[in-house]
């Protein structure tokens, strides 16, 4: 200094370390620290169910229906189906097929799935028909062996049964018996056989046809005749 008094030394830093360059000198105002950026807030929880898409945002396309699937009345309609394959000799009923197409479309069935159902139905019908044919054949076998009208005299017995059918039946009845196979049933044959026997044994045979000979049902079922 000018008066010869030495200038005071700067105090040593605590710990023997020199103060860093630019460090504030004691008594110098310390500037306020810069504002700290606000901490990032976690994203709000979201889900496809709770969040509606932003206006104008593209909506992911719905997956195309796979085979066997389809929206009712939209992806598959009754008109979507091509002609179905049916067993040989089967003539389809247009109304029934239209109903089937409508039901298949309602359940979203593909062409292949609907065809499979038709095939299964055709197999079921064929099995029932085969079972009925087997049953009628068994009826015929049982009738030929029947103790009352079968055996060695079967042909003669059938002659009597046919005579009764011609006398009291109608062509429509004969057609029904043939188409249904009931003409082979032992109990049906038995009924007409007994009626035929009554015709042959009736002493009034010989004039006036069936009405003159009387109704053989009166003999077979007397209680019914009284009514």
Mean pLDDT: 74
Number of helices: 8
Number of strands: 0
Low-confidence stretches: 10-19, 35-53, 64-68, 206-213, 219-227
Report the principal-axis shape. elongated
Tell me the helix content.
40-55%
Percent in strands: under 5%
Span between termini? 161 Å
Question: Could you say which structural class the secondary elements and strand pairing correspond to?
Answer: mainly alpha
Largest sheet: none
CA gyration radius, whole angstroms? 52 Å
Order of helices and strands: HHHHHHHH
Report on the structure:
The protein has 227 residues and is mainly alpha-helical. Among the domains are: 66-144, no CATH class; 148-226, no CATH class. 45% of the residues lie in helices and 0% in strands. The chain has eight helices and no strands. It has helices at residues 94-106, 111-144, 154-168, 171-180, 186-201, 209-213, 216-220, 222-226. α3 crosses α5 (186-201). The longest helix is centred in the middle third of the chain and has 34 residues, at 111-144. The protein is elongated, with a radius of gyration of 52 Å.
């Amino acid at each position: 200094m000018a008066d010869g008094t030495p200038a005071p030394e700067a105090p040593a830093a605590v710990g023997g370390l020199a103060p860093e360059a630019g460090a504030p000198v004691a008594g110098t105002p310390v500037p306020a620290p810069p504002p700290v950026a606000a901490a990032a807030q976690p994203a709000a929880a979201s889900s496809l169910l709770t969040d509606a898409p932003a206006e104008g945002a593209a909506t992911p396309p719905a997956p195309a229906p796979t085979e066997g699937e389809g929206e009712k009345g939209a992806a598959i309609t009754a008109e979507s189906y091509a002609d179905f394959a049916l067993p040989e000799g089967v003539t389809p009923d247009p109304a029934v097929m239209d109903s089937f197409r409508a039901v298949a479309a309602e359940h979203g069935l593909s062409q292949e799935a609907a065809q499979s159902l038709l095939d299964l139905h055709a197999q079921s019908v064929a099995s029932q028909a085969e079972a009925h044919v087997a049953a009628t054949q068994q009826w015929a076998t049982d009738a030929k062996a029947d103790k009352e009208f079968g055996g060695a005299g079967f042909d003669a017995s059938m002659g009597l049964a046919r005579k009764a059918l011609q006398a009291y039946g109608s062509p429509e009845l004969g057609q029904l018996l043939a188409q249904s196979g009931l003409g082979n049933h032992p109990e049906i044959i038995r009924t007409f056989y007994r009626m035929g026997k009554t015709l042959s044994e009736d002493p009034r045979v010989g004039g006036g046809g069936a009405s003159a000979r009387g109704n053989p049902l009166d003999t077979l079922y007397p209680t019914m005749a009284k009514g």
